[in-house]
Amino acid sequence: MAQKVIILLGPPGAGKGTQASLLFDKLGFYYLETSKLIEANVMSAKEGDYAEVGGKKYYFLDEKKLWEQGILCSPPFVSFLVRQKIEDLASDGKGIIMAGSPRTLHEGEDQVPLLKKLYGSENIKVVLIEITPDQTIWRNSHRRICELMRHPILFSEETRELSRCPLDGSKLVRREGLDDPETIKVRLNEYKERTLPLVEYFEREDLAVKRVAGNQSVEEVHRDILQVIQ
Ligand SMILES: [Zn+2]
């Protein structure tokens, strides 16, 4: 049986990362995290390594400089890495969980035809975890991550008293900058302008987008996701 691709979408604070980790534990699919993929590639880059996209060369060491300065890497370079990884995973017969990428229409148009070709439309499951803008702001301003692995810890009744990561015991800290209310508003706006067109694109491509209520406990959201990806 062909493997599945699960794409999790949702505004900042919807719990995409947490749900992706739970799905990973449950299903054993590969969790394709763009940021980790970029990091692994630029960190092992050697002088002269390049990716050629659309006739232009993108040098890994140039991209590494951008990465180290906290600047976004060139989109064609990132897309090259993601496509290459998708092809490797498909040839290994692995299922994929994606959360946080594709995030824009451009990325979607770039990745979806490849995913369709390798996995088949019927095996691509798009899940939109919905929460309101107020919930996004509230959750993000209370969100913490662990120092060691950057596991995201959403604020909830279950986690409010935690001071250590339940997975590795390292200290929980706030993310500098990213989770300030002003920054969250910018990210929320970006979500509206860039990710919602992606949802429309998936629907035009005849990929069913399943909506799950994000305003529930982590376990309830997980249960709902398992149900809609059947
Ligand atoms: Zn941790």
Brief write-up:
By secondary structure, the chain is α/β, with parallel strands linked by helices.
- Unique bound compounds: zinc ion
Structural shape: globular
How are the strands ordered across the major sheet?
A: 2-5-1-6-10
Structural class: alpha/beta
Q: Report how far the terminal alpha carbons are from each other.
A: 14 Å
**Helix and strand element order:** EHEHEEHHEHEHEEEHEH
| Beta-strand percent range | 15-25%
Structural features, described:
This protein is of the alpha/beta class and 230 residues long. It has a domain at 35-90. Helix content is 47%, strand content 17%. It is built from eight helices and ten strands. It has helices spanning 16-27, 34-43, 60-68, 75-91, 105-119, 133-141, 181-204, 218-228; strands at 5-9, 30-32, 50-53, 56-59, 96-99, 124-130, 144-146, 152-153, 172-173, 209-213. Strands 2-5-1-6-10 form a five-stranded parallel β-sheet, sandwiched between helices. It has a three-stranded antiparallel β-sheet with strand order 8-7-9, with no helix packed on it. Strands 3-4 form a two-stranded antiparallel ribbon. A hairpin with a 2-residue loop joins β3 (50-53) and β4. The longest helix has 24 residues, at 181-204. The two termini are 14 Å apart. The mean pLDDT is 90. The chain binds zinc ion.
